[in-house]
Predict the structure.
Amino acid sequence: MPAQRSVPTSSPSLRERRRAAAVREILDAAEHHIALHGPAALSLRAVARSLGMTVQALYHYFPNRDALVTDLVAKAYGDLSQALRAAVDAAPEGPSPARLVAVAEAYRGWGVAHPERFQLLYGTPLRYYAAPADGPTTQAVRQMGALFQRELFDGFTPAQLAAADVPPLSPPFRERLARLAANAEDGLPPAGLSLFLGAWGQLHGLVVLEVFGHTAFLEDHGSEIFRSSVRMMVEDIHRRIPAGAPG
Protein backbone atom coordinates (compact mmCIF):
# COMPACT_ATOMS: atom_id res chain seq x y z
CA MET A 1 0.00 0.00 0.00
CA PRO A 2 1.51 3.36 -0.95
CA ALA A 3 2.28 5.69 1.88
CA GLN A 4 -0.23 8.50 2.32
CA ARG A 5 1.16 11.95 1.74
CA SER A 6 0.62 14.39 4.53
CA VAL A 7 -1.30 17.44 3.45
CA PRO A 8 0.73 20.53 4.32
CA THR A 9 -1.10 23.02 6.46
CA SER A 10 -0.89 26.57 5.29
CA SER A 11 0.54 28.92 7.87
CA PRO A 12 -0.69 32.51 8.17
CA SER A 13 0.95 34.94 5.81
CA LEU A 14 3.04 37.84 7.02
CA ARG A 15 0.15 40.20 6.30
CA GLU A 16 -2.25 38.04 8.34
CA ARG A 17 0.19 37.81 11.26
CA ARG A 18 0.66 41.56 11.28
CA ARG A 19 -3.07 42.12 11.22
CA ALA A 20 -3.62 39.66 14.08
CA ALA A 21 -0.91 41.39 16.12
CA ALA A 22 -2.51 44.79 15.45
CA VAL A 23 -5.93 43.51 16.49
CA ARG A 24 -4.50 42.13 19.75
CA GLU A 25 -2.82 45.47 20.45
CA ILE A 26 -6.06 47.36 19.82
CA LEU A 27 -8.03 45.01 22.09
CA ASP A 28 -5.41 45.37 24.84
CA ALA A 29 -5.59 49.16 24.54
CA ALA A 30 -9.40 49.08 24.65
CA GLU A 31 -9.35 46.88 27.76
CA HIS A 32 -6.90 49.28 29.40
CA HIS A 33 -9.18 52.20 28.53
CA ILE A 34 -12.16 50.38 30.04
CA ALA A 35 -10.18 49.63 33.20
CA LEU A 36 -9.40 53.35 33.60
CA HIS A 37 -12.67 54.95 32.51
CA GLY A 38 -15.35 52.23 32.53
CA PRO A 39 -17.17 50.57 29.61
CA ALA A 40 -19.47 53.53 28.93
CA ALA A 41 -16.50 55.75 28.03
CA LEU A 42 -15.22 53.44 25.30
CA SER A 43 -14.78 55.05 21.88
CA LEU A 44 -12.71 54.32 18.81
CA ARG A 45 -11.22 57.81 18.94
CA ALA A 46 -9.96 57.33 22.52
CA VAL A 47 -8.46 53.93 21.74
CA ALA A 48 -6.80 55.23 18.57
CA ARG A 49 -5.35 58.19 20.46
CA SER A 50 -3.85 55.90 23.11
CA LEU A 51 -2.10 53.91 20.36
CA GLY A 52 -0.86 56.97 18.49
CA MET A 53 -2.90 56.18 15.39
CA THR A 54 -5.75 57.89 13.58
CA VAL A 55 -9.36 56.77 13.78
CA GLN A 56 -9.26 56.17 10.02
CA ALA A 57 -6.40 53.69 10.52
CA LEU A 58 -8.37 51.95 13.27
CA TYR A 59 -11.29 51.51 10.86
CA HIS A 60 -9.14 49.07 8.86
CA TYR A 61 -9.46 46.65 11.80
CA PHE A 62 -12.79 47.61 13.37
CA PRO A 63 -15.32 49.37 11.11
CA ASN A 64 -17.28 50.76 14.07
CA ARG A 65 -17.53 50.75 17.84
CA ASP A 66 -19.98 47.82 17.86
CA ALA A 67 -17.45 45.58 16.14
CA LEU A 68 -14.85 46.49 18.76
CA VAL A 69 -17.30 45.94 21.64
CA THR A 70 -18.32 42.55 20.24
CA ASP A 71 -14.70 41.39 20.14
CA LEU A 72 -14.08 42.75 23.64
CA VAL A 73 -17.13 40.95 25.03
CA ALA A 74 -16.23 37.70 23.27
CA LYS A 75 -12.65 37.96 24.57
CA ALA A 76 -13.86 38.64 28.12
CA TYR A 77 -16.16 35.63 28.00
CA GLY A 78 -13.30 33.56 26.61
CA ASP A 79 -10.96 34.60 29.42
CA LEU A 80 -13.68 33.98 32.01
CA SER A 81 -14.46 30.54 30.57
CA GLN A 82 -10.75 29.69 30.59
CA ALA A 83 -10.60 30.54 34.32
CA LEU A 84 -13.62 28.31 34.96
CA ARG A 85 -12.17 25.38 33.02
CA ALA A 86 -8.89 25.74 34.92
CA ALA A 87 -10.85 25.54 38.18
CA VAL A 88 -12.58 22.36 37.02
CA ASP A 89 -9.28 20.80 35.99
CA ALA A 90 -7.68 21.67 39.32
CA ALA A 91 -10.61 20.43 41.43
CA PRO A 92 -10.07 17.01 43.03
CA GLU A 93 -12.10 14.09 41.76
CA GLY A 94 -15.16 13.53 43.86
CA PRO A 95 -18.76 14.63 44.35
CA SER A 96 -19.98 17.24 41.91
CA PRO A 97 -20.89 19.81 44.63
CA ALA A 98 -17.18 20.37 45.33
CA ARG A 99 -16.43 20.97 41.64
CA LEU A 100 -19.42 23.29 41.27
CA VAL A 101 -18.23 25.32 44.25
CA ALA A 102 -14.76 25.51 42.69
CA VAL A 103 -16.23 26.78 39.41
CA ALA A 104 -18.42 29.30 41.25
CA GLU A 105 -15.45 30.60 43.22
CA ALA A 106 -13.44 30.96 40.00
CA TYR A 107 -16.37 32.95 38.53
CA ARG A 108 -16.41 35.23 41.56
CA GLY A 109 -12.62 35.53 41.56
CA TRP A 110 -12.51 36.62 37.93
CA GLY A 111 -15.24 39.19 38.46
CA VAL A 112 -13.57 40.68 41.55
CA ALA A 113 -10.19 40.77 39.80
CA HIS A 114 -11.60 42.34 36.60
CA PRO A 115 -14.52 44.52 37.74
CA GLU A 116 -14.59 46.74 34.65
CA ARG A 117 -14.58 43.79 32.23
CA PHE A 118 -17.23 42.09 34.37
CA GLN A 119 -19.31 45.25 34.10
CA LEU A 120 -18.83 45.19 30.34
CA LEU A 121 -20.48 41.75 30.35
CA TYR A 122 -23.14 42.24 33.02
CA GLY A 123 -23.41 45.93 33.83
CA THR A 124 -25.57 48.62 32.31
CA PRO A 125 -25.93 47.85 28.58
CA LEU A 126 -23.84 50.12 26.39
CA ARG A 127 -26.00 52.71 24.69
CA TYR A 128 -26.84 51.92 21.07
CA TYR A 129 -24.96 48.60 21.17
CA ALA A 130 -26.70 45.39 20.12
CA ALA A 131 -24.84 42.09 20.09
CA PRO A 132 -25.04 40.24 16.75
CA ALA A 133 -27.73 37.56 16.77
CA ASP A 134 -26.21 34.13 17.38
CA GLY A 135 -22.75 35.68 17.09
CA PRO A 136 -19.56 35.04 19.07
CA THR A 137 -20.93 36.57 22.26
CA THR A 138 -23.99 34.29 22.21
CA GLN A 139 -21.84 31.22 21.58
CA ALA A 140 -19.54 32.18 24.46
CA VAL A 141 -22.48 32.50 26.87
CA ARG A 142 -23.79 29.09 25.84
CA GLN A 143 -20.42 27.44 26.39
CA MET A 144 -20.09 28.94 29.84
CA GLY A 145 -23.66 27.98 30.75
CA ALA A 146 -23.02 24.41 29.60
CA LEU A 147 -20.02 24.21 31.93
CA PHE A 148 -22.07 25.31 34.95
CA GLN A 149 -24.92 23.01 33.94
CA ARG A 150 -22.62 20.00 33.66
CA GLU A 151 -21.10 20.53 37.10
CA LEU A 152 -24.42 21.29 38.81
CA PHE A 153 -26.23 18.22 37.45
CA ASP A 154 -23.33 15.78 37.10
CA GLY A 155 -24.57 12.25 37.73
CA PHE A 156 -28.29 12.98 37.33
CA THR A 157 -30.33 11.63 34.43
CA PRO A 158 -32.86 13.64 32.39
CA ALA A 159 -35.62 11.56 34.00
CA GLN A 160 -34.44 12.54 37.48
CA LEU A 161 -34.28 16.20 36.53
CA ALA A 162 -37.75 16.04 34.98
CA ALA A 163 -39.08 14.72 38.30
CA ALA A 164 -37.34 17.36 40.44
CA ASP A 165 -39.38 18.94 43.22
CA VAL A 166 -39.95 22.53 42.05
CA PRO A 167 -42.82 24.95 42.62
CA PRO A 168 -45.62 24.45 40.09
CA LEU A 169 -44.76 25.86 36.67
CA SER A 170 -47.51 27.68 34.81
CA PRO A 171 -48.36 26.12 31.41
CA PRO A 172 -46.99 29.13 29.45
CA PHE A 173 -43.73 29.10 31.43
CA ARG A 174 -43.36 25.34 31.07
CA GLU A 175 -43.93 25.68 27.33
CA ARG A 176 -41.29 28.41 27.14
CA LEU A 177 -38.76 26.28 29.02
CA ALA A 178 -39.49 23.35 26.72
CA ARG A 179 -38.83 25.53 23.66
CA LEU A 180 -35.55 26.72 25.14
CA ALA A 181 -34.51 23.14 25.80
CA ALA A 182 -35.41 22.12 22.25
CA ASN A 183 -33.00 24.74 20.87
CA ALA A 184 -30.10 23.65 23.09
CA GLU A 185 -27.66 20.82 22.46
CA ASP A 186 -28.01 19.45 26.00
CA GLY A 187 -31.52 20.68 26.71
CA LEU A 188 -32.83 20.25 30.25
CA PRO A 189 -36.40 19.24 31.04
CA PRO A 190 -38.52 22.16 32.31
CA ALA A 191 -38.09 21.30 35.99
CA GLY A 192 -34.32 20.97 35.59
CA LEU A 193 -34.04 24.20 33.63
CA SER A 194 -36.09 25.99 36.29
CA LEU A 195 -33.63 24.78 38.94
CA PHE A 196 -30.67 25.85 36.82
CA LEU A 197 -32.02 29.36 36.18
CA GLY A 198 -32.71 29.85 39.89
CA ALA A 199 -29.20 28.66 40.78
CA TRP A 200 -27.62 30.92 38.18
CA GLY A 201 -29.60 33.92 39.41
CA GLN A 202 -28.48 33.36 43.00
CA LEU A 203 -24.82 32.68 42.17
CA HIS A 204 -24.52 35.53 39.69
CA GLY A 205 -26.44 37.92 41.91
CA LEU A 206 -23.99 37.44 44.76
CA VAL A 207 -21.06 38.24 42.47
CA VAL A 208 -22.80 41.30 41.03
CA LEU A 209 -23.47 42.67 44.51
CA GLU A 210 -19.79 42.32 45.41
CA VAL A 211 -18.34 43.62 42.13
CA PHE A 212 -20.59 46.67 42.26
CA GLY A 213 -19.55 47.40 45.85
CA HIS A 214 -22.80 46.54 47.65
CA THR A 215 -21.23 44.07 50.09
CA ALA A 216 -18.36 46.26 51.31
CA PHE A 217 -19.81 46.02 54.82
CA LEU A 218 -18.62 42.38 54.88
CA GLU A 219 -15.02 43.62 54.59
CA ASP A 220 -12.76 40.60 53.96
CA HIS A 221 -15.47 37.99 54.48
CA GLY A 222 -17.03 38.12 51.02
CA SER A 223 -15.43 34.88 49.87
CA GLU A 224 -16.66 33.00 52.95
CA ILE A 225 -20.30 34.05 52.63
CA PHE A 226 -20.16 33.33 48.91
CA ARG A 227 -18.77 29.82 49.42
CA SER A 228 -21.29 29.07 52.17
CA SER A 229 -24.20 30.34 50.06
CA VAL A 230 -23.18 28.30 47.02
CA ARG A 231 -22.78 25.13 49.10
CA MET A 232 -26.23 25.54 50.64
CA MET A 233 -27.73 26.27 47.22
CA VAL A 234 -26.23 23.13 45.67
CA GLU A 235 -27.30 20.95 48.60
CA ASP A 236 -30.86 22.28 48.38
CA ILE A 237 -31.01 21.69 44.62
CA HIS A 238 -29.69 18.15 44.90
CA ARG A 239 -32.23 17.37 47.65
CA ARG A 240 -34.98 18.34 45.23
CA ILE A 241 -33.86 15.76 42.67
CA PRO A 242 -35.14 12.20 43.32
CA ALA A 243 -32.51 9.56 43.94
CA GLY A 244 -33.78 7.34 41.13
CA ALA A 245 -35.64 7.84 37.89
CA PRO A 246 -39.41 7.30 38.14
CA GLY A 247 -40.84 4.17 36.56
Observations:
- DSSP finds eleven helices and no strands in the chain.
- The chain has a mean pLDDT of 89.
- The domain at 64-239 is CATH 1.10.357.10 (Tetracycline Repressor; domain 2).
- The CA atoms of residues 3 and 39 lie 56 Å apart.
